Amino acid sequence: MAKWIPLWLHKLSSPPVFYGFAGKLRPWAIALALILGAIGLYGGLVLAPPDYQQGDDYRIIFIHVPCAWMSLFIYAVMGVAAFIALVWRIKLAEIVAMASAPIGAAFTFITLVTGSLWGERMWGTWWTWDARLTSELVLLFLYLGVIGLYHSFEDRRQGARTAAFLALIGIINVPIVHFSVNWWNTLHQGSTIRLLGPSTMASSMIWPLLTMMAATKFYYIASLFGRTRADLLSLESGKDWVREIAEKEVRG
Amino acid sequence: MNPTRKRRLTIILSILGAAVVASALVVYALQQNMNYLFTPSQVQDGDATRYKNFRLGGMVKAGSIQRSNDSLKVTFTVVDAAGAMPVEYTGILPDLFRENQSVIATGHMDGARFVATEVLAKHDETYMPKELKDAMAKAHQGKHIDESASQDKSQL
């Protein structure tokens, strides 16, 4: 074992420890996601002023942009987990990668649908084959490919490893989606929120957007932990720790 | 790290590296070939002659919009830094279409004019309340700063 990894992280990768840890954290993540989501939506849909050129139509940004960020963020998490799963064959990493795929696919789908609605109102078209829209659609297909490949194997661990390979190669698409608006002439506008340099959005509109970003992150944690726990139970169904939990459930 | 893991790490890193290099080359090549749109000056330089249908992108010149009285026909001029191109379109324009707005028109050349079958409005990545925009426009007055899309929708 590598010496630079702290002991608690090693312990966390053991299924029973992670099962308990995720179970304790999940209610907090759900609560934070709901509270922050309510605050963010109220701030975005009610408190934030209308935009100077798009009026009230721009408010779909408070759904569209956080979901788009999550579609990329979850893919990055899935890619890293897939890498760990392929090299170190850690069962938890396989499960995390595979449990992330449906959540990421859902966020990507919401991004495409809300973007389409917004585009119809502002640009005058539901869809156009510009670089940003096309690469985001490719991202959805990558997610669906990972899900499909995972489920096409009888042996779930072998399915997970094969799908992890696709997930890992597909990670190349993440920077392409992000930088597509800079690299090519697109109908889609450039990035509003920038880590380097000033953002081009009034502060009264930015805070609900950042709150929604936090809410979607917590939702992802809650959803991922729930899925991971369920998958851990079914994959480890013959083990003692699962039997103990099952017996406790029956008795309680 | 044991030898098996080291071997797997090397294999996976080299495959990933090869895939990154391959896609970087594809992206680099597409940057030169893949044109979503042509600007008026590019069209006038003859860059778009090999396409029958293409997209023309640029800014709607102020004062150039002329609407027909008895049909949906609209003519306007699309400009970029160095060129201008008259455009003809029949149909319903998007809400954001107005003077000094970036638009992308799909269509073909008919002589010197561009006949569009679809006109899309492009908007920028700036979001701010109308009051702030008005205040900024006021501060900019007299400094002769050309603000793109400074008119409000209702003034069209």
TrEMBL record, chain A:
Q: Where in the cell is it found?
A: Cell inner membrane; Membrane
Q: Which UniProt keywords apply?
A: Cell inner membrane, Cell membrane, Cytochrome c-type biogenesis, Membrane, Transmembrane, Transmembrane helix, Transport
GO MF terms on file?
A: heme binding; heme transmembrane transporter activity
Which biological processes are named by the entry's GO terms?
A: cytochrome complex assembly
Report membrane topology.
Answer: Multi-pass membrane protein
Which cellular components does GO assign to this protein?
Answer: plasma membrane
Residues forming the Cytochrome c assembly protein domain are: 9-188
Q: Which InterPro entries match?
A: Cyt_c_assembly, Cyt_c_biogenesis_CcmC, Cyt_c_biogenesis_CcsA/CcmC
Which regions span the lipid bilayer?
Answer: 28-48, 60-88, 95-117, 137-153, 165-185, 205-225
The family this protein is said to belong to: Belongs to the CcmC/CycZ/HelC family.
Functional description taken from the UniProt entry: Required for the export of heme to the periplasm for the biogenesis of c-type cytochromes.
Q: What is this protein called?
A: Heme exporter protein C
By which gene is this protein encoded?
ccmC
Automatic annotation (TrEMBL), chain B:
Binding positions (heme): H123, Y127
Q: Where in the cell is it found?
A: Cell inner membrane; Cell membrane
* UniProt keyword Transmembrane, yes or no: yes
Instruction: Tell me which domain of life the UniProt entry assigns to the organism this sequence originates from.
Output: Bacteria
PANTHER family named among the record's database cross-references:
CYTOCHROME C-TYPE BIOGENESIS PROTEIN CCME HOMOLOG, MITOCHONDRIAL
GO molecular function (one): metal ion binding
Quote the NCBIfam families the UniProt record gives. PRK13159.1, PRK13254.1-1, PRK13254.1-3, PRK13254.1-5
Cite the ranges annotated as topological domain Cytoplasmic: 1-8
What InterPro entries has UniProt attached to this entry?
Answer: CcmE (IPR004329), CcmE-like_sf (IPR036127), NA-bd_OB-fold (IPR012340)
Q: Which family does it belong to?
A: Belongs to the CcmE/CycJ family.
Function, as annotated, reads: Heme chaperone required for the biogenesis of c-type cytochromes. Transiently binds heme delivered by CcmC and transfers the heme to apo-cytochromes in a process facilitated by CcmF and CcmH.
Residues in compartment: Extracellular: 30-156
* Regions crossing the membrane: none
Instruction: Please provide, in alphabetical order, the Gene Ontology terms of the cellular component aspect for this entry.
Output: plasma membrane
- Name the UniProt record assigns to this protein: Cytochrome c-type biogenesis protein CcmE
Regarding the membrane, this protein is recorded as: Single-pass type II membrane protein
What keywords are annotated for this sequence in UniProt? Cell inner membrane, Cell membrane, Cytochrome c-type biogenesis, Heme, Iron, Membrane, Metal-binding, Signal-anchor, Transmembrane, Transmembrane helix
List the GO biological process terms: cytochrome complex assembly; protein-heme linkage
- Region Disordered, as annotated, extends over 134-156
Q: Ranges of Basic and acidic residues compositional bias?
A: 134-147
